[in-house]
Each structure stands twice: as C-alpha cells, then as structure tokens.
Amino acid sequence: MNRSSACDGSALIPPLDSDDSALSDSEDSDGGNLLCEDESTDEDHTAPASPSCTAGSRDIQWETVPQQNSAKDFPVWGRALSHADEIRQPVQYFRDFFDADLLKHIVQQSNLFCFQQKQRTLNMDQNELEQFLGAVLYMSVFQLPRSRLYWSAECRVAQVADIMSRGRWEEIKEFIHFNDNSNMASNNDKLYKIRPLIDSLLKKFHVLPQDQLLSIHELIVPFKGKTNLKHYLSKKTFKWGYKVFVLCDTKGLVHSFDIYTGYSDPLPGEPDRGAKGNVVLKFAQIIPSSANHLLFFDSRFSSLDLLVVLANKGILALGAMKQSRLPGCNFSKDGVMKKKGRGSFEEKKVVIQSVEIRAVKWFNNRGQIVASTFASAQPVCQVERSHRKLKKNISIKCPHIISIYNQFKGGVNALEALISNFPIQIKSKKFYHRFFFYFMNMVIVNSWLLYQRDCESLNVPKKMQKDFLDFRTSIAQALCLQGKDLTRKRSGQPFSEIEREFEKKKQRGATKAIPTQEVRSDSVGHWPVMESVRQRCKRPNCKGLTVCKCIKCNVHLCLNKRKNCFREFHE
C-alpha cells in the first residue's frame, strides 16, 4: 500500500484524457451536480436498506476528519492484463462474440419462425446471415434515411446493393429470430424472445480481462414504440427507450449488462436492497475479490449498506451519495459552505462492521457528497473553474476523492459516445430487433477496445492502428465478402446499357482499399479478369503495372510469365 502524492491519482492510476467534467464550469449552470439524470423520475422500487445500517442508525457515530495527515493509503494495482501474441484481423475480434454457435442458433430459429408464420422456409444459411450483418454495418456508416435507398438508382450504395438484393435483405430482417415462439406461453420471461442472445453475449463479456477501474451506470436503448419495457429518462439525449444497467471499465469496455424489466430480484441468500442495489451485487459476482478492483457508481446506486457489503466481498467502491442515505452524518448546509467560498469541503468518517467509510461534501456552486471505502479528501489539489462575473477561470480547491470520482466514473459515457458515432438506425416495430442491433454496436465497441489493448501491449504505434471507423468498415467488408462468390448472378434487374457505359467511363478515383487477409485467403470467387486500363499492382512491394484484376477483391494484380502476384496475394 502506497500513499498517494497527487490529487488526481496519476501516480497510481493511469491518466485519462478526461478531467473533472462532471463538476460545474460556470456559476450559472446546474451547480456542477454529480448527478446526470433526474432522480425524481426514477421508477425503481427502492427497498429499505439492510438493518445493519438503518435499524441501528442512531448508534452510527460520525467523526470529523482533520485536514492534516488524514490521507488513506491508496490501493495498488499489481495485476497485469493478458499479453497479446499478435494483432488479429478485426473480424476475428467480432467473431469472439458472434461465434459460429450463436450464428447457427440464429439461422435455425429464423428459419423456424418463417415456417411458423408463412408455412414456408426462409432457406437462410450462416454465410447469408453474415452477409446480412455486414450490410447492416455498412448502413450504419453511410446512414441513409431509408433502407430502400441503398438499392435505389439515385442513392445506390454498391457495398450493400452488390452483396444482397433488396427483397432478400428485407425478408431476412422480417424473419430474423432468436427463440422458439411455441414455448413462450409457458415462460414468464419478458425478454424471452432475446434471451439466447443475451445469455450468449454475457458468457463472453464475463471472461474478458478486467482493468482495475470499473464503473456501473445506466444507459438507454432508444425506442418509442408500444411496449411495457419502455422508460422515460429526462436527462438523456434519447429520453424514451429501454433501460440497461452496464458494468464497464473507464474506456467503455463492457463486462456485463442487465436489462431492466421493472425490478431486479435479489441474489439467493441476500437481502433485498432495491432494484439497483441488487444489480450492483449481481455485477460484483464477476469481479475478482481482494484484487484491489475499484468500483465507481453514482447516487442512484449508493448507500452505506452497499459500500459495506462490497467491502466485505473484497471490492472497494466510491460513489456519489444523497444526504438522506447517510444516517447520523450532519454536513453543513449549502448556505453555510457558500459563505466559506467555492472549494470549501468537509470530511467525516465512520466504521461499520470493521469497514471504514469516508464521506466528503464539497461546495462548488452547490454541495456535492461522495463516499468511499478507499479514498479520502487528502491530498487536495487545485482545479480550474470559470467565474461568470469575472469572465475568467479561477483556481479552487478540490479534494482527491472528488477528483478521482469525476475522472474515472464515465465509462458508460465513453461507451455511449462510441455507439452514437455510427448507430444502427434500422426501423422496426419489434422490440427484440432494437436490442439485437444495439448489441451489435456494443460488440463492435468491445472488439475495437480489445484490438486497441492488444496494440498497446505489442507497442504498435498509434498511426499504425485502425481507428474506430476503419475497424468497423473492415468488419463489414469481411462479413460481406468472406466465403461469397460474387461471380454468381444477382437477383433483380441488370444494369441498362447506359448504366454500363457510365460505369466504364468512370474516372480513376481514390486508391481502392485492400481486402482483409481473411477475405483474400478464403479461396472462393477469386477470378482474374483483363481490364482495358492498366493500374499499379496492389501486392505489397510490387511496383508493376498490370491489366489483370481480381473480380472479387477488385484490385489489380500482376499475372504473367514473369510474375504471379495474383497467387501470392491470395495465399
């Protein structure tokens, strides 16, 4: 155990790009409230706290902590994440989650559902399902307002239209299914239609290597249709939708999630601590105990009882706290602290069941309270905040516990930001479609963060790493092309003579993207054709000019008696 020497914890915790963004930057704002949603509209049924913290609340004696020599020893992270042997292709990271077993199950249930509804077979196989998923990912990149526009003459997108006909894509979308409807009547699970997908993804999320810093928060899957699972959260960008609790690290890597269906049952043998308290303990089951993991959450989850239970399980926690959930702890009112000035704070401590809890109230534009089993107010640092009247930044005091909370609690915010960059916006009245497409986005984010983690472990330079968009399009390309023979005639009307002439007269554009290694080596549909235009060979380290082109990869490659780049490129 080492003592922290910096307020932001940079000596012991890897620095992030974020700062204390949850705190107010101006006096005319909301006062820097640590809460990000309207708790008065929260529909959770909050159960009373455990008797250990409520029945004996009169016996809880809080002590005022002096500001000198009161810093707590900060937990040291001694575990290293798994070291990667190589950087894999993006689609391989994606297939860690959407593996062959899951795809096979979706194919079987979709074919069964089509037969139950229309008395005919869908005749979808695993390759065609991957083709559908690749088209969906391409749609999230191009973002046309209607799905039919990807096949229209005015807005045609070749990456989608060349892979699958419009009618077939819509047919697969209509009948894609995940569970047998014939067994639904005897099942009370509100998520029965999507349960196999949830169980499959959770098993893979749970085994991901965990970083020291973890956070629990809630996000919303946007949806305005008619369903009893829909909730309203006034402070979210999308206010209507499905509420999902998520456990992730500070970069947004998801380790577990739980869809809120009205209430969360307590764990076997545990007392009922309310819907959100039960969710926290459910997530705590997959966090290794006594490994110095630090768990962050906001005031919707926090209570003294929960901090004590987590500490007894070997998990240290820090969270924003309501004054009503600190029995016997009497902090000064906001008016009194305002007279002391911005940056004033008070720290108190209490010992419950041999667990020491520190609570700190800090005043910026209003009072905010946080409580923790591992952090304290010391050491105090200086942070920059804007002043409305002076129209400039001023420096105020900020306790260490406030600084690290605001720096490391935003894992779900990072997840939502990545998902919102390229959301899958395919309209459907079926609630399980919305979950399926949202989980696809979540898997893409997890895959990219694992790819970045492997690149860091192998010291790959940033300029050599794929960004999120390149990573996403690489997965879409691999899903659309791997194992597909594009020489087969597509359904639908062929190009007219005018369109063919237009295609021939297209000017040379930007350099074509080279297909991924998995597409190049799948040995399906790679046929040489001779073009009238000579172009540079795309095999690395070859500078020759050639008229030979691979019809599937759509790149020029040397193929003559002196060179056979065509074969080497596809090995």
Helix segment tally: 17
Q: Helix amount, in percent? A: 25-40%
Low-confidence stretches: 1-6, 8-52, 489-510
**For the CA atoms, what is the radius of gyration?**
28 Å
Shape: globular
**Number of DSSP strands?**
16
Largest sheet: 10 strands, mixed
Explain what you see.
This protein is α+β, with helices and mostly antiparallel strands. The protein has 17 helices and 16 strands. The longest helix is centred in the C-terminal third of the chain and has 27 residues, at 431-457.
Write out key terms for the chains shown.
single chain; alpha+beta; two-stranded antiparallel ribbon; 31% helix
Helix and strand layout, with pairings?
Elements: E1 2-3, H1 51-54, E2 63-64, E3 73-74, H2 90-95, H3 100-118, H4 126-142, H5 158-161, H6 166-175, H7 195-206, E4 213-222, E5 230-232, E6 240-249, E7 254-259, H8 274-284, E8 294-297, H9 304-312, E9 316-320, H10 334-340, E10 345-352, E11 355-363, E12 367-372, E13 381-387, E14 392-398, H11 400-408, H12 411-421, H13 431-457, H14 468-481, H15 497-504, H16 517-520, E15 528-536, E16 545-550, H17 565-569
Parallel strand pairs: 4-8, 8-9
Antiparallel strand pairs: 1-3, 2-10, 4-6, 5-6, 6-7, 9-12, 10-11, 11-12, 13-14, 15-16
Helix pairs in contact: 4-14
